[in-house]
Amino acid sequence: MAALVAGANAALTAENPGLDNVVVGMGWDAIPSHGPQAELVPFVVMCDGDDKAVSNDHLVFFNQLVSADSSVTFVGDADQEQIDVALKLVPEDVAKIIFFAYVDPELRGNGTFAAVRSAHIRVATAEDRELVRFNLSVEKLESVTAMIFGELYRHRSDWKFRALGQGYSTGLAGVAKDYGIRL
């Protein structure tokens, strides 16, 4: 298993011949408080070569658990945020798959990532052999309401993973604007 730092890349399929499916797990701990508790919601965007969502059918989240092509499936529950990716089924027009979480203000009121600790993203095989892990920085998150954890992306005929940890103070709306998602 390789531990990555922000901005680092890891070859997945080139270093693991025959790797057809991966499980992307996102996790975090939150410090309990008596005030508004941030409710983090995982979200996946399948993007084209111009870094825009291919369509709103290429999003995976709690209201749309499977992408239109069935290549990306949310299989998480209340304790685990896991997304299965069938790499061989991902359409050719998808250049990258972005994994992020945002604070849902409708569930528990306004909140930020300030109470979040131990945030991470990991990529594992279908047999749960961890290939890479990225532990996100949990400093200076008082104004962060959405966070891109990482992305799977095509590099020639192979798939790679990039650790990101990019925070947004504009929440889901900011990410939607950057990636052309219609809310």
Note the main attributes of this structure.
183 residues; six-stranded mixed sheet; 44% strand
What's the helix and strand layout?
Blueprint: E1 2-4, E2 9-11, E3 21-30, E4 40-47, E5 59-60, E6 72-74, E7 81-86, E8 96-103, H1 105-108, E9 116-125, E10 130-135, E11 146-155, E12 158-168, H2 171-179
Parallel strand pairs: 1-10
Antiparallel strand pairs: 2-12, 3-7, 3-9, 4-5, 4-8, 6-7, 8-11, 9-10, 11-12
Give a structural overview.
The protein is mainly beta and 183 residues long. It has a single domain (7-179), classed as sav2460 like domains (Lipoxygenase-1), CATH 2.60.60. It is 7% helix and 44% strand. It has helices at 105-108, 171-179; strands at residues 2-4, 9-11, 21-30, 40-47, 59-60, 72-74, 81-86, 96-103, 116-125, 130-135, 146-155, 158-168. The strands form 2 sheets. Strands 1-10-9-3-7-6 form a 6-stranded mixed beta sheet, with no helix packed on it. Strands 2-12-11-8-4-5 form a 6-stranded antiparallel beta sheet, with helices on one face. 36% of the residues are buried.
How many domains? The number is 1
- How many DSSP-defined strands? 12
The geometry reads as globular
Structural class: mainly beta
Question: In angstroms, what separates the terminal alpha carbons?
Answer: 37 Å
CATH architectural category: Sandwich
Going by CATH, the homologous superfamily would be: sav2460 like domains
Mean pLDDT: 90
Major sheet attributes: 6 strands, mixed
As a percent range, the share of strand residues is: 35-45%
**Succession of helices and strands:** EEEEEEEEHEEEEH
Percentage of residues in helical conformation? under 10%
Q: Class in CATH?
A: Mainly Beta
Question: Radius of gyration over alpha carbons?
Answer: 16 Å
**What do we call the CATH topology?**
Lipoxygenase-1
Residue ranges: pLDDT <50 for 5 or more in a row? none
Question: How many helical elements?
Answer: 2
Strand order of the largest sheet: 1-10-9-3-7-6
